[in-house]
Amino acid sequence: MAREASQPTVSAAVMTSLMFTHFQPSVERMTVSIVRHSSVAQVRPMSPRVSNGTSNRSPLAPVGQTKRNPAVWLVAALLSSGAVVALGLALAVYAFFIEPYHLEVTHLKLPIRGLKARSCPIRIVHFADVHSDPTVRLEEELPRRIAEQKPDIILYTGDTLNSVDAVPICRDMFAKIRPIAPLFCVKGDWDLEPDLALPVGVAGVQFLNGYKVLNIRGSELCIIGNDCFVSQRQLVDSTRKAIPAKMPAILITHQPDNDVVMSGKTAGVDLLLCGHTHGGQVALPFFGPIVTHSRLGTLYAVGLNRLNDMWIYTNRGIGMEGRLPRVRFCAPPELTVIDLVPASN
Description:
Helix content is about 30%, strand content about 20%. The strands form three sheets. It has a six-stranded mixed beta sheet, covered by helices on one side. A five-stranded mixed beta sheet has the order 1-13-2-3-4, with no helix packed on it. Helix 3 (about 140-150) runs parallel beside helix 4. The protein is an alpha/beta fold. The protein is globular, with a radius of gyration of 33 Å.
């Protein structure tokens, strides 16, 4: 009977030992989590229990395993914080001093109805949003990069100055661009500010307010453009009445959220070129632009899109807005090179 009475006591001890062994890793993880989220003042080593000759080892630290020192976790946390700060500083340096000066050239080939095969490709260079400041950024590089593309037409979609002190910089830039190929410009919202308007006729620059028909190696092409905030749809309608029905037309306007796009009435326009959004100027990987200053949000905010039978290309611009943020991140300055080819159907 005595042996039978002692059996449950032995089994309970064994079961208790097994339970500690089984749950010990989970308890340790809980302890680590507490240490990670506690302040230094709250971290205290567990006091060993010494009684009647029993071991002074914590029940959570079995034989052969050393209990982790909270100071190790504190040092690791400080090193991790230092890495985060270093990464933040590196990204700030990149956004302020590197990406705004890194001009990307984007090449596209777009089929357009009404063009003759012997005339093509017809090469267009499109840029936008120079936003010049008194300090030169890309204004000296831009004419050379445009000339390298050997364009048939150069199209600029507005927002030229951040400061009147930058007029000499813009004058020199446009004076070098204009002889490369026929140049057509429209005004953006910044160009309509009285104190930021580029002087009329500076370096021979003329802003389009209507349309111009070009003959390029036997193919006729209509360039349509006007100031922003003016109805582009009305301008397209009046222009289509004045030109042959099958003549391809390119609409240059500053903003993607113009009334042609907003209404969805794209008839008569084969290609729409715009800027204004700067590609967000700050964008997030896998997400895109954060702020676009467009009523359409991120829709048509950057790059090539299609609406009905009309191509839309939104250029990321050259400069940076005169207000904050004066950075670019995942939205580098852009020069767009578009080769127009005949549409098969």
